[in-house]
Amino acid sequence: MKLLKNTTSPFARLAHAMLIEAGAAPEVELVNPWADPEALTEANPARRVPALILDDGTILTEAMLIARHATAISPQGSHLRDDDPAKLAIAGLGFGTIEAAVYIMTGRKIVSNDLAVTDFDRHPVADRRRGAMRDSLTRIEAQADRLSHDRMGLAELIVADAIQYLDFRFPGADWRPAIPRLDAWLRDAMAQPSVRDTVPT
C-alpha cells in the first residue's frame, strides 16, 4: 500500500499513525496538496491528503476512514479495537481541536495566500475557532488519566496530533490553555513510534 501525505497535515498524520499502530508499513509519498500534484489529483479529486492506495488499487481518502481501515486490518485483540465511549468522546474533542486549527490556517491561505500572515486571525470566526481549541483542550486535560501512556489508540493519537499541531502552527500562543497533565502525558507518548515518527515538520 502507498500513503500520500505531507509532513504538516494533522489529518495525514493521524492516518499514518493509525497504520503504524495496526502494524502496516505503507510506502509513503510526500506531496504538496496546494500544488495539485498529479499523483494526488488522480487519487483524490478533493485534492487533499491523506490518500491511501491499497495493493488492489482501491483508494481510501479522509483520515477517519483510513483510521477505520487501520482498525480493520489490525490483529485480533488489538488496542485499536477499543470502542470505549469515554475514549471516543475524548477523540471527538481532539478532532474538533484539529479541525478548528486547520480552519484558521485555511482562512490565512484564503485571505493572504500565506500561512504565516495572521490577518485572518483577527476575524471573529477565527476567534471562535481559538475558543473551540481552548475549551476542547481544557476538557481533555480534565480526562488526561484516561489516556494510555504506551498503547496508542485512536483517542491517544488524535490528542497527540491536536496538541502538537497547535504548537506547530501557533507557537507560544497566549491563548493556549495550561494543560500540564497532557503535556506530561505527551512526553511519555513520544516514546511510541506512531507519535515520534510522525511529528509535523
Describe the structure.
- With about 200 residues, the protein is of the alpha+beta class.
- The chain folds into two domains: about 1-80, Glutaredoxin, CATH 3.40.30; about 80-195, Glutathione S-transferase Yfyf (Class Pi), Chain A, domain 2 (Up-down Bundle), CATH 1.20.1050.10.
- It is about 50% helix and about 5% strand.
- It has helices spanning about 10-20, 40-45, 65-75, 85-110, 125-140, 155-170, 180-190, 195; strands at about 1-5, 25-30, 50-55, 60.
- The chain has a four-stranded mixed β-sheet.
- A hairpin with a 5-residue loop joins strand 3 (about 50-55) and strand 4.
- The longest helix has 28 residues, at about 85-110.
- The mean pLDDT is about 95.
Q: In angstroms, what is the radius of gyration?
A: 17 Å
- Which strand-content bin applies to the residues? 5-15%
The global form is globular
User: What name is given to the CATH topology of the largest domain?
Assistant: Glutathione S-transferase Yfyf (Class Pi), Chain A, domain 2
Helical residue percent band: 40-55%
Largest sheet: 4 strands, mixed
Query: What's the level 1 CATH class of the largest domain?
Result: Mainly Alpha
Low-confidence stretches: none
The number of helices is: 8
CATH architecture term of the largest domain? Up-down Bundle
From the helix content, strand content and strand pairing, which structural class follows? Answer: alpha+beta
CA-CA gap between termini: 23 Å
